[in-house]
Design brief:
Elements (H helix, E strand, L loop, with lengths): L29 H18 L4 E5 L15 E6 L9 E3 L12 E7 L8 H10 L1 E12 L7 H5 L8 H9 L4 E8 L4 H18 L19 H17 L10 E7 L7
Parallel strand pairs: 1-2, 1-4, 2-3, 4-5
Antiparallel strand pairs: 5-7, 6-7
Helix pairs in contact: 1-6
């Protein structure tokens, strides 16, 4: 595998744009623990025995631990604080790797941070080997947009058809797409509706009007932590058998055709 140098517009603290994932500060937060299990449940059948794995946006390390034993893993993040062993500081819009370098490319809650979307997905596809698999997770539903998305530097949220259409446009073949976090979805929806109501009452300026460096996640009591994890076990039981019809995240696996038609 070859690596090419990419020039980055890096600020005085070694970062560009939005800063690191909240997981840098709270790696054991309930959402990261649950997401790791749900990602493994959905994607493990498509991983098999790769030689090279690329983890894009490696600041979310707690969610990719299950991939570490699968082949040789390379991580890339624009924030050096998120880099792991074999890490590269670089931009997902200009990945510093040759075409067809990886058997698996994983980008978990990454592409919603990137614009233009087509360029981001094109880069992830470019570095996949023929027959390789792209693994994605993204936040769901534009109606759930809040100032938390602004603070996180998001450009958009997704539905299952919206993500499917965007990935299919790159020439990849969809293998699986499902919602996740269905078990806690009623609580999520209620919280986002309440957030929208509060925002309307206080006017157009929310708590966040620009991306934050590292977003502060809501404090969760031990009792609520246990409840959220218990509700999420419903997803873990259902996902091996069915695709979920709703949830606060969308998970997608897509394969690069073995041969590109000419």
């Amino acid at each position: 595998m070859s690596v090419r140098t990419v020039g980055l517009d890096v600020g005085p603290e070694g970062r560009t744009g939005h800063g690191g994932s909240p997981s840098l500060a709270v790696p054991d937060y309930w959402w990261y623990r649950v997401r790791a299990e749900l990602l493994r449940t959905v994607f493990e059948p498509w991983v098999r025995s790769p030689q090279w794995v690329l983890d894009v946006g490696s600041a979310d390390g707690p969610s990719v631990g299950w991939l570490c034993a699968r082949g040789r893993k390379v991580s890339i993040d624009i924030d050096p604080r998120g880099l792991t062993a074999n890490g590269v500081c670089g931009d997902a819009l200009a990945l510093p790797f040759a075409d067809g370098s990886f058997d698996i490319v994983a980008a978990f809650d990454v592409i919603e941070h990137l614009a233009p979307e087509a360029l981001a997905l094109g880069e992830l596809t470019r570095v996949l080997r023929p027959g390789g698999v792209l693994l994605l997770s993204v936040p769901a539903y534009q109606w759930a947009w809040s100032d938390h998305d602004v603070a996180n530097g998001h450009h958009r949220r997704y539905t299952r058809p919206r993500l499917t259409q965007a990935v299919t446009a790159t020439g990849l073949d969809i293998r699986r797409v499902t919602y996740g976090f269905a078990g806690v979805f009623p609580l999520f929806a209620a919280e986002r509706m309440a957030s929208r109501f509060r925002l309307r009452r206080r006017g157009p300026r929310g708590d966040h009007t620009a991306p934050a460096d590292i977003v502060t996640v809501p404090t969760v009591s031990p009792a609520l932590d246990r409840l959220l994890c218990r509700l999420s076990r419903l997803d873990a039981r259902l996902l091996p058998r069915i695709d979920l019809p709703f949830g606060s995240s969308v998970f997608l696996a897509a394969a690069k055709p073995e041969r590109t038609a000419r």
